[in-house]
């Protein structure tokens, strides 16, 4: 029996990968004593391992090759860049970031996960600062039927003959601004205007050169920038006012010619 066990131990190298153990099973009492005993192989009770070092140390589990190989970390693709967060919280230089997430954790000595967050410098355009003379509360509107009044007054007023005024008037031009009407005061009930000044309607507001002579920026008073919201008031009817949003501007423009499909008004 000792010789048999010695022969079996010669398979120690094999047992490093497929651990074996020799054991005996006694026969029942009713068998003859001279009958040979059966022998079988079974896994040893020793501990085995499932990491990257077990191959070198010779203590891998028997199913290592198909159960225990190392697994590297896997991540998703980058998500979209988030909005720019300014350093001062308002505008200017800031940072923005994008992220990704882990789809498979590293196991058994696999490659660790790469960074999940990426950042870069960005810039947010600061709003234009208006001069004090351009900051007004309400834009005044006038019925478009008065669109020839200023040009007639200019010919009869000596003020327009002053060299400085005359020079500025030569450089000034007509321009049109499209505004979308928002909230409207319920006092705008006059039949002449309630079909033009109502929520959702887009109107054309014309700025004439004579209305810009007292301005330093060649714009009508209370004219906004595209996308801005502001207040308007109609001259004439009592308490006819509301809010609007600026859509766009056309230079060298008369509302009656450039936008005949829109309801026209004059910016005072």
Automatic annotation (TrEMBL):
Keywords, ordered alphabetically:
Disulfide bond, Glycoprotein, Signal
Q: Return the SUPFAM superfamilies for the record.
A: Somatomedin B domain, TSP-1 type 1 repeat
Q: Which residues form the SMB domain?
A: 48-72
User: Which PROSITE patterns does the record match to this protein?
Assistant: SMB_1, SMB_2, TSP1
Does the keyword section mention Signal?
yes
Q: Which domain of life is it from?
A: Eukaryota
- One short Pfam name that applies is TSP1_spondin
Which InterPro entries would you find in this protein's record? SBSPO, SBSPON_C, Somatomedin_B-like_dom_sf, Somatomedin_B_dom, TSP1_rpt, TSP1_rpt_sf, TSP1_spondin_dom
What protein am I looking at?
SMB domain-containing protein
Organism equals Ancylostoma caninum
């Amino acid at each position: 029996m000792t010789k048999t066990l010695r022969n079996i131990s010669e398979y120690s190298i094999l047992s490093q990968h497929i651990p074996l153990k020799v054991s005996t099973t006694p026969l029942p009492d009713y068998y003859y004593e001279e009958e040979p005993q059966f022998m079988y192989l079974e896994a040893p009770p020793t501990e085995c391992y499932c990491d990257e070092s077990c191959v070198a140390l010779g203590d891998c589990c028997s199913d290592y090759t198909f159960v225990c190989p190392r697994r590297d970390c896997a991540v998703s693709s980058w998500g979209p860049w988030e909005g720019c967060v300014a350093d001062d919280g308002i505008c200017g230089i800031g940072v923005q970031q994008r992220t990704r997430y882990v789809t498979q954790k590293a196991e058994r000595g696999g490659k660790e996960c790469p960074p999940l967050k990426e950042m870069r410098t960005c810039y947010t355009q600061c709003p234009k600062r208006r001069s004090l003379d351009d900051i007004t509360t309400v834009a005044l509107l006038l019925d478009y039927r008065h669109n020839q009044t200023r040009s007639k007054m200019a010919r009869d007023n000596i003020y327009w003959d002053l060299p400085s005024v005359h020079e500025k008037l030569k450089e000034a031009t007509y321009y049109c601004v499209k505004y979308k009407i928002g909230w409207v005061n319920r006092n705008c009930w006059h039949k002449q205007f309630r079909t033009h000044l109502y929520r959702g309607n887009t109107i054309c507001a014309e700025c004439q050169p004579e209305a810009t002579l007292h301005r330093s920026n060649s714009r009508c008073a209370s004219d906004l920038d595209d996308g801005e919201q502001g207040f308007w008031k109609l001259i004439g009817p009592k308490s006819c006012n509301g809010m609007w949003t600026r859509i766009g501007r056309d230079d060298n423009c008369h509302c009656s010619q450039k936008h005949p499909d829109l309801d026209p008004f004059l910016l005072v």
